């Protein structure tokens, strides 16, 4: 493609019924589409079969960021309910947040929270984001665990706030809420800070991870805290004009050492992929570091570190779909997505996945 890439070049049509609303009963019971970049072959498997595609000397790089219960509900002075979606911490108890509805929100106003908590509206950052400050009687993470909700993507339907208090079927809603708290989190999540899950890792059960280790595969953690950029659509017609939101990451020295001495590097998800590529120097050697990355991987990018990529099926026109097109080739990815749609794979965060080798 010699001309400038446009957002429309990465559009596809997905039947709404293929958007997964709930995870499979078992983590490793999801379906796995294996895409071979050399042969162009597409083969179907269960996720638990993934062990057969790795061998001793391979390193599987995982993102151990933990999703915080970033969605809260409070009351304005008028008594009206307002939804607060935390995006990222700025300093002390200040956060950038989305407020809904925001039409009548005013700078300087206060929102009442549970347990006598308060939220002060300090400033408006842009047309969507606000700067807010908490005043609580307990540490923020403890407060979120007690009163926050799992920040599911908008395409997953759950009653929220007041509607969740008196649902038509309260048993089903409570089951979903409890399941989401566990299942919208990887089994290896450790470091709190993400407002969305690194979804490629949701398929790993402890049993599958143990099976990989028995085969001699090394698991190497890094951290990237997923922020608002995951949700932000590309609004420009040409993808070159899009700028990624900067996200905090940490690549530990032990992980760098393992990656640099491995036979093959398998990145679990776009987040692990972006950290590895952001920290690579000459000849694909990664350097341990802590920092932020706004790397936007798009067709034409030359991968330095990642040999294989495990990834979910992503939204059309998204930076995530563009990344996998850069890794596997746009034509092959469109063929894989057409196959997945025809075979009724489940899409997006709670959906099935693909392994690109």
What does this structure look like?
- It is a single chain.
- The chain is α/β, with parallel strands linked by helices and 357 residues long.
- 20% of the residues lie in helices and 27% in strands.
- The protein has seven helices and 17 strands.
- The strands form three sheets. A nine-stranded mixed sheet has the order 2-1-17-16-14-3-12-13-15. A six-stranded antiparallel sheet has the order 5-6-7-10-9-8, covered by helices on one side.
- Helix 6 packs across helix 7 (330-342).
- The two termini are 23 Å apart.
- The relative contact order is 0.20.
Sequence-ordered SSE layout with sheet pairings:
Elements: E1 31-35, E2 42-46, E3 58-63, E4 65-67, E5 71-75, E6 81-91, E7 94-100, E8 110-113, E9 117-124, E10 129-135, H1 140-147, H2 170-183, E11 191-194, H3 206-214, E12 218-224, E13 247-251, H4 253-260, E14 264-268, H5 269-278, E15 289-293, E16 308-312, H6 319-328, H7 330-342, E17 353-356
Parallel strand pairs: 1-17, 3-12, 3-14, 4-11, 14-16
Antiparallel strand pairs: 1-2, 5-6, 6-7, 7-10, 8-9, 9-10, 12-13, 13-15, 16-17
The appropriate CATH architecture of the largest domain is 3-Layer(aba) Sandwich
- Number of folding domains? 2
Q: CATH superfamily membership of the largest domain, which one?
A: QueA-like
Which value, in Å, is the CA radius of gyration?
21 Å
């Amino acid at each position: 493609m010699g001309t400038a890439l446009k957002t429309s070049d990465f559009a596809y049509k997905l039947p709404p019924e293929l958007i997964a609303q709930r995870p499979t009963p078992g983590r490793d019971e999801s379906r796995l589409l294996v895409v071979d970049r050399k042969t162009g072959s597409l083969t179907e498997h269960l996720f638990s079969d993934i062990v057969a595609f790795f061998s001793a000397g391979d390193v599987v790089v995982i993102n151990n960021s933990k999703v915080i219960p970033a969605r809260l509900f409070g009351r304005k002075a008028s008594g009206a309910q307002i939804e607060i979606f935390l995006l990222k911490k700025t300093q002390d108890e200040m956060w950038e947040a989305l407020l809904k509805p925001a039409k009548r929100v005013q700078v300087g106003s206060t929102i009442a929270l549970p347990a006598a908590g308060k939220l002060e509206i300090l400033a408006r950052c842009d047309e969507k984001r606000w700067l807010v400050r908490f005043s609580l009687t307990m540490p923020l993470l403890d407060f979120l665990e007690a009163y926050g909700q799992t920040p599911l993507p908008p395409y997953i339907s759950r009653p929220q706030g007041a509607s969740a208090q008196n649902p038509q079927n309260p048993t089903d809603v409570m089951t979903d809420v409890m399941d989401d708290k566990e299942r919208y989190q990887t089994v290896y999540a450790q470091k709190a800070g993400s407002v969305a899950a690194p979804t490629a890792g949701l398929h790993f059960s402890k049993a599958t991870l143990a099976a990989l280790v028995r085969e001699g595969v090394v698991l190497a953690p890094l951290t990237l805290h997923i922020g608002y950029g995951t949700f932000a659509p590309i609004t420009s017609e040409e993808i070159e004009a899009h700028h990624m939101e900067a996200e905090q990451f940490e690549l530990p020295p032990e992980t760098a050492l393992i990656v640099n001495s491995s036979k093959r590097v398998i990145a679990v998800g776009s987040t692990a992929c972006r950290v590895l590529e952001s920290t690579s120097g000459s000849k694909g050697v990664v350097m341990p570091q802590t920092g932020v990355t706004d790397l936007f991987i798009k067709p034409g990018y030359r991968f330095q570190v990642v040999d294989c990529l495990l990834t979910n099926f992503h939204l059309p026109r998204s930076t995530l779909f563009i990344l996998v097109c850069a890794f596997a080739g746009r034509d092959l990815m469109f063929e894989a997505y057409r196959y997945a749609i025809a075979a009724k794979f489940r899409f997006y965060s709670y959906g099935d996945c693909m392994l690109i080798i």
